[in-house]
Amino acid sequence: MLGPTQANGKQRGLCYHRAMSSSDREPAYRPATATHDSSRVSVIVTVLNEADSLARLLASLADQTRVPDEVVIVDGGSTDGTLELLATWARRDEMPLVVVERPGANISRGRNVAIEAAAGPIIASTDAGVRLVAEWLERLVIPIVRGEARVASGFFASDPQGAFETALGATTLPEARDVDPATFLPSSRSIAFLKQDWSRCGGYPEWLDYCEDLVFDLRLLTVAGPAAFARGAVARFRPRSSAGAFVKQYYRYARGDGKADLWRRRHAIRYLTYGIALPTLLALGARVHPLWWLILAVSVVGYLWKPARRLMHQWGGLSRWERVKAMAWVPAIRLLGDLAKMAGYPVGWRWRLRERPPRWRPSFQPVTRPTSGR
Q1: What proportion of the chain, given as a percentage, has pLDDT over 70?
Q2: What mean pLDDT, rounded, does the chain reach?
Q3: Would strands 227-237 and 130-132 be described as parallel, antiparallel, or unpaired?
Q4: Are 45 and 73 in contact (CB under 8 A)?
Q5: 190 and 337, same domain (yes or no)
Q6: 8 Å CB contact between 98 and 15
Q7: Does residue 350 belong to any structural domain of this protein?
Q8: 198 versus 364: which is more confidently predicted?
């Protein structure tokens, strides 16, 4: 069992909150030496069976040029040694660590619980399994500490192993130079905001299991204004390691889109492309003139060009044969991702029609009209 680390009768690194009902409240541990000025930052993380990946996140947090004033971690019911790992890290006394157990909590509930328990007025959110660059927190909170913005969006990049993961990262993730800061929606693996704005916008949507950070973003921006883009605040994470895991991930993303009624136009274009445009061009090439197939081929090349270009920027660590394999994966990943989305979106909409979730959209337009990086 975990418990507070003791030193001369005083708590040092860890405050441990046992499982409570969702309506309970318990104040977070605050180090005796802590100040309560407006620049205090609480980093929040949710975990579930992350024993194999959590250590590198904790190590990168401890090595930050601006060390967090506290790290609040909510565990959703891990059984793989995650809690024991947290106890080991707490004994190092490198940073104040708050652990709260919430068995069965989804990621939205976990984040809300973590923010409730946080002592700092500035919240920085990230995910288990990522590796943060050393300047991540310092660069992420600068716009908020200086009063330039109330929300700061960091960036994220893949940390791949092998040809498939390199291709997956290049195909599904933008590069920093592709991002328009005025329209970029932050990911909750790299975002900072004021705790009071989290409260004002209603927090993370606990009825939603995927795409919850997009819904939160859209509501947050209505109360906090545009996000500052902290380009150097990079969270690196490992992409899914297999095609099956990737398909499941994108199916769930699209199901979340359907549940939240996100990106109707985007999904409609995808159905029209595969359901009407593609078979029409194939039929015209077969029955009218092969030139239609050339038009189709040019369209496909255009669809694949941007991820292929990104891959060529990112494959420096691969051998020549691995580069060939990675490039061959790009069209396959595009196709699998599209099919997964087309399968997941109607499932989410069916759930939406059956469950009738809360109306979450703001009653007025956000200050910016952001688009997803996904």
Answers
A1: 86
A2: 87
A3: antiparallel
A4: yes
A5: no
A6: yes
A7: yes
A8: 198
pLDDT of residue 43: 98
Please tell me the pTM assigned to this model: 0.85
Residue 210 inside a domain? The answer is yes
Indicate whether 261 and 215 sit together in one domain: no
On the question of pLDDT at 30 being above 80, the answer is no
Which stretch of 22-31, 86-95, 170-179 has the lowest confidence by average pLDDT?
Answer: 22-31
* Strands in the chain per DSSP E: 6-7, 10-11, 14-17, 41-47, 70-75, 97-101, 122-125, 130-132, 151-158, 191-194, 227-237
In a domain, 306, yes or no: yes
Model confidence at 374: pLDDT above 60: no
DSSP per residue, 96-150: -EEEEE-TT--HHHHHHHHHHH--SSEEEE--TTEEE-TTHHHHHHHHHHTTS-S
- The residue segments making up the domain with residue 155 are 6-237
Residues 90-145 have pLDDT tens digits of: 888 788 999 999 999 999 999 999 999 999 999 999 999 899 999 999 999 999 99
What's the CA gap between 139 and 154, in Å, rounded? 8
- To which H or E segment does residue 33 belong? none
For 234-250, what is the mean pLDDT? 96
Phi/psi of residue 120, nearest 5 degrees: -80, 150
Residues 6+ apart with CB under 8 A from 99: 2, 14, 15, 16, 17, 73, 74, 75, 83, 86, 90
Determine the 3-state secondary structure of 41 from DSSP. strand
Based on the fold, state whether residues 225 and 249 are members of the same structural domain.
Answer: no
Please give the Cα distance from 150 to 169 (Å, whole number). Answer: 30
> Backbone phi, then psi, for 256, in 5-degree steps?
-65, -40
Smallest Cα–Cα separation from 203: which of 125, 255, 99?
A: 125
Q: What is the pLDDT of residue 16?
A: 55
Same domain, 216 and 254: no
Number of structural domains the chain divides into: 2
What's the rounded Cα separation, in Å, for the pair 239 and 96?
Answer: 29
284 found inside a domain: yes
Taking 3-state DSSP, the helix, strand and coil percentages for the chain, each rounded to the nearest 5, stand at: 45, 15, 35
Cβ–Cβ < 8 Å for 303, 334: yes
Helix (H, G, I), strand (E, B) or coil at 366: coil
Give me the CATH number covering residue 112.
3.90.550.10
